[in-house]
Design a protein that fits this description.
By secondary structure, the chain is α+β, with helices and mostly antiparallel strands. Among the domains are: 87 residues; 96 residues, Protein of unknown function (DUF541), domain 2 (Alpha-Beta Plaits), CATH 3.30.70.2970. It is 38% helix and 33% strand. The strands form 2 sheets. The protein has a 4-stranded antiparallel β-sheet. The longest helix is centred in the first third of the chain and has 33 residues. The radius of gyration is 45 Å and the shape is elongated. This is Putative secreted protein. Pfam families: SIMPL (PF04402). InterPro entries: 26kDa_periplasmic_antigen, SIMPL/DUF541.
Length: 267
Amino acid sequence: MTRKNSPAPAAAAVAPAATDAPPARRRRAARSVAWRPVLAALAASASLSIAPAGAAEPPPAGPLLRVDAQAQREVTDDIAVAVFFVERDGPEPSALQAAVNPVLQASLAELKRDPALQVRSGRYVTQPRYGREGRIEGWRVRGELIAESSDVSAVSKATSKLAGKMNVGSIGFRLSDEQRARAERELTGEAAAQFQEKARAAARALGYGDIELVEANLSSSGNPGVPMMRAAMSKDAMGAEAAPVPLEPGRSQVSVGFNGSFKLLRR
């Protein structure tokens, strides 16, 4: 009996080969395979970077010490200052101004003849005078000139030049900007040394071996000299041929300070 060979199953003939997959599916598969090494590397680096975070923490900050220190000295005032004024009282302010202004102009011209003097205008005030019932009974006009110089004799002579014209409101001394800046520069080093030494001494007393600067602030100040003559000297008291006023400079205090904080260290 003759046996015929059975035909291959239909499914085997129909199943597509891998190379017969659509192009879109092949591209997605290729991209997936290409990214696998990159993703693996990222996972490894992430695990390496995260692991030490819990193992090593920064040491706690030490306690802070606040410190302030100051260095100061007295410096001789080197600028003499004189304030002159003219004042008139009367019923009409315009008439008073007409009387005061020429005196100011003439006195200003007189003082400016001396090149050693620095002259400038001071206050110029027109104000009413009130009676007992609060009513205006008159007016007062006052004008000032200010003369100053590092040449003390020039200011002293100015008082005699204006005798009979203007009154002396005050005479005093001040410290020049140049001398103040020079003193502050010298004091800055002294104040800084005191600032650091004070911090080190406090650290040793508290049982710490060293310090580390965290913050520092610098400040400076100065007290001006006191005027020698506070009360006004009238032109009548000075006289027409008044002698120069004897002057002697005072002293101003200049100070420089540091304040800030240090970290206390055990080492």
